[in-house]
Structure formats: structure tokens, C-alpha cells
Write a structure and sequence with these properties.
The protein is α/β, with parallel strands linked by helices. Among the domains are: 186 residues, Rossmann fold (3-Layer(aba) Sandwich); 90 residues, no CATH class. Helix content is 44%, strand content 13%. The chain is built from 13 helices and 13 strands. The strands form 3 sheets. A 9-stranded mixed beta sheet has the order 1-13-2-3-12-11-10-6-7, with helices on both faces. β6 and β7 form a beta hairpin. α1 crosses α10 and α5 packs across α6. It is elongated and about 125 Å long. The relative contact order is 0.11.
Length: 413
């Protein structure tokens, strides 16, 4: 048994350790070769990450006065500052009300409907001019009850002319001078956005029974609804009369508070809500019913296990069955080299015992002894017994047959 173990270990060292050592040496050589470039790449990635963490996040919100992208409104904000208007950008209700204590125009743009009716009521008490950009139904109800929504502006047609109508009695009548001096100088604006109806409507378009407009003001002119919010964007501010309308609407006072509500305006619950309260009412009875049905099913289908059957040990397995099972495992896992190593070790073990070489003999000693007892060249025997490694199943079968032929030749002597 010790002779077989020693011979098998020597064969495994020949087949396995050499390959592992060669692969490890090759990997270290490649690592040393590319060490400089790998270190340089790591340093560059670290520098980029540090720069990204240090630099503030860019503003990419629609119609933000700090967004230089096409959907932002930095251009009109900068022009207003050059004309002496103090533009204050806010994102919370408290900050906005504090900025409006000294007066000024309020631009309100709440695309996500963050504010509740109570918060909108606080905002309506500031008393100055208010410009609502694309407001929703709730915004109109609290901040501009005289004005109603009229859907989207049709895409068909040319630009919207600066014609103004009054709608006090339900039928529009022309207003020669417009609601203020800020609309007529615009001439026309780009078509698009949302439409509204109210006391005074400018940049009107036909919707069927009643006209609607992209620029609507209250009767006293203190509240303006701008459905054409795109005229403030960097992308379209230079088209037609968009710039004139934006500057005349927002630059009437020395201060402009540009308010875009954020997550900080969301009203938090006073007490944490129970997650179970969020579930529908039918969840609890259905869950109890399913548990009852499951318990009944287990009682119905459950079976009692009998006593364990004792089996005498150890179990004797025939050697042929073990060898066949091991061979099937090698075949299923495509372990051609491992199967070849076992065949080589078994052949060397039997040849060593036949030639009486002793338990500590090496594979090279077995090859020399076989060469002395056969007519084959030593180089052929060394390749057959030591160095040859099959790469496919067909090569493994041919090689195994050659080993069997050599072993039969030596054993028959």
C-alpha cells in the first residue's frame, strides 16, 4: 500500500505541481510587467472619485435659475441680474416667505405638487405679484381661483401672437393695450405648454367653444399664470419674443424670488404610521383563512414516520463497482488529466511491484527498469510513462491501451 501511495504521489507531482508552479510563475511575471500601468490606473480612478466627491452636484432641474442646460433657466436669471433685479432662488416655503418679507415678485414652479393646501394658503398671503408657471388644479384653486385650466396648447399652427382678450362675461373681447406693458412688446411666442382661461388672456388660441391662452392674469393683474413655461428655458429664450415676455414679466420689481418646492416642503407625519395600517382591510381575514387551510392540509396529508431501520456496517462495495463509478464521475466532469494521472500512477505501481524496485522508487527508476526488460527505446517509454498528457477522450483511450499493452508485455516475462 505504501509503494502504491509513493508512486501515485510522484506521478501527481509530475502532472500537477509542475503545471501549477508554471501558471503561478507566469502570473507573477505578467503582474510585474503591468504593475506600473495598474498602479497608474488605480491612481487616476482615485483622483476622479475624489474630484467627484468634492465638487457639488450639478443642477439639472427644469427651469432652474442655476441650470445651464437647455432645460434650465440660467440665461434669463443672469440677464435679470444684469438689469439690476435681485434673483433669489429658494427651495423651501419658510425660506421663500422670509425672502418675500421685503417685497418683490414671486415665481412659483411646483412640478411635483409638493405643497399641501395649507402651505399654498400661507404662500398666497405675501401680497406681492405672483407668477405661476404651469400650475396644476390645486395650485389654481388656492393661488388663482379666478383662473381655470384649459388643457394643452395644440401643436398645429404657428407662433402665438400677443393678442389679449377679456373674459369677464364668458365671451372674449379684445383689449387694445393688453393687461400690462409686458405682453405686446413680445410680439409672438413659441407655441407649446399648457392653456388656461381667466379674466385677461393673452397669446390666445382656439380650443372650440371658448378661447384659451398661454398667458392669463387675474382681474387686478396681481397673479399671472404662465402656461408657456418653455419661454424661460435656455433653449428657447432667444426664439421670437420669448425673451421680451420673460424679462417684462419677471423684471417688473427690484427683487424676484424664484421658488421651486423640494422634498424639504413635504409635510411629515407627527407620529410614525403603523405599516399594517397601509394594507387593505381584506388582508387580515384572508391571511387567517390561509393559515387555517394550511393547518388542516398538514393534518390531512401528514404522515407519521416509523422506526429507523438498522443496517449492519460497514457496507461492502465491490472494487469493480467503485472503479466504474469513479470512471463515470471523471467522464461527466471532463477530468481527462486527473483520470490520466490515476492511470499513470496505477501502472507505475504495478510495474514497480513486478520489477521489485521497492516502495520508495521514483517514476524515473521505473522507466529505467522497464527499458532494461523490454525492447522499446527509453525515450518512448519515458514519454509513455511520464510526460505524455492526453487532451481528449479519444487520446486518453489510446494512451490507456498502450499502457495496458506495455504492462502486459512486462508481466508476461
Amino acid at each position: 500500500m505504501s509503494q502504491a501511495t509513493a508512486t501515485r504521489a510522484s506521478a501527481d507531482n509530475i502532472d500537477g505541481s509542475g503545471e501549477e508552479q508554471t501558471a503561478w510563475s507566469l502570473g507573477r511575471q505578467r503582474l510585474r510587467r503591468w504593475a506600473f500601468w495598474l498602479l497608474l490606473g488605480v491612481l487616476l480612478i482615485a483622483a476622479v472619485l475624489v474630484q467627484l466627491l468634492r465638487s457639488p452636484a450639478a443642477d439639472r432641474e427644469d427651469l432652474s435659475p442655476a441650470n445651464p442646460a437647455p432645460n434650465g433657466a440660467m440665461a434669463v436669471a443672469e440677464v435679470l441680474r444684469q438689469q439690476g433685479v435681485e434673483v433669489i432662488s429658494t427651495d423651501s416655503l419658510d425660506e421663500t416667505l422670509a425672502a418675500l418679507d421685503d417685497g418683490g415678485t414671486l415665481l412659483f414652479h411646483d412640478t411635483n405638487n409638493y405643497l399641501e393646501p395649507e402651505q399654498l394658503a400661507r404662500l398666497s398671503d405675501h401680497g406681492g405679484r405672483t407668477v405661476l408657471v404651469r400650475p396644476g388644479f390645486q395650485h389654481l384653486q388656492e393661488l388663482a381661483p379666478e383662473i381655470s385650466a384649459a388643457g394643452r396648447v395644440p401643436e398645429e399652427g404657428g407662433p402665438l401672437a400677443a393678442e389679449c382678450l377679456t373674459n369677464d362675461d364668458g365671451a372674449g373681447s379684445p383689449v387694445p393695450d393688453g393687461p400690462d406693458s409686458g405682453t405686446l412688446p413680445a410680439g409672438s411666442i413659441s407655441r407649446g405648454g399648457l392653456g388656461y382661461r381667466g379674466p385677461v388672456m393673452c397669446f390666445t388660441f382656439e380650443t372650440g367653444a371658448e378661447p384659451a391662452a398661454s398667458y392669463v392674469t387675474s382681474a387686478d393683474g396681481g397673479t399671472i399664470v404662465l402656461g408657456a413655461g418653455h419661454v424661460l428655458s435656455n433653449e428657447q429664450i432667444v426664439e421670437r419674443g420669448n425673451a421680451a415676455l420673460a424679462l417684462n414679466t419677471l423684471g417688473s420689481a427690484d427683487r424676484l424670488v424664484w421658488y421651486r418646492p423640494s422634498l424639504s416642503d413635504l409635510a411629515a407625519a407627527e407620529e410614525p404610521q403603523n405599516p399594517l395600517a397601509l394594507l387593505p382591510a381584506w388582508v387580515a381575514p384572508v391571511t387567517l383563512w390561509l393559515l387555517a387551510v394550511g393547518a388542516l392540509a398538514m393534518l390531512w396529508k401528514g404522515r407519521r414516520l416509523g422506526k429507523l431501520i438498522q443496517e449492519p456496517l460497514p457496507v461492502v462495495v465491490p472494487a469493480a463497482e467503485t472503479a466504474a463509478g469513479r470512471a463515470r464521475l471523471y467522464q461527466d466532469s471532463k477530468s481527462i488529466r486527473r483520470a490520466a494521472a490515476n492511470l499513470r500512477a496505477a501502472t507505475l505501481t504495478r510495474l514497480s511491484a513486478k520489477l521489485r524496485l521497492g516502495s520508495g522508487s521514483s517514476a524515473a527508476a521505473v522507466v529505467d527498469a522497464v527499458a532494461r526488460h523490454s525492447n522499446r527505446p527509453p525515450a518512448e517509454l519515458d514519454r509513455l510513462l511520464r510526460t505524455y498528457i492526453p487532451e481528449s477522450e479519444s487520446q486518453l483511450v489510446d494512451w490507456a491501451q498502450n499502457l495496458q499493452s506495455l504492462e502486459k508485455e512486462i508481466l508476461d516475462q
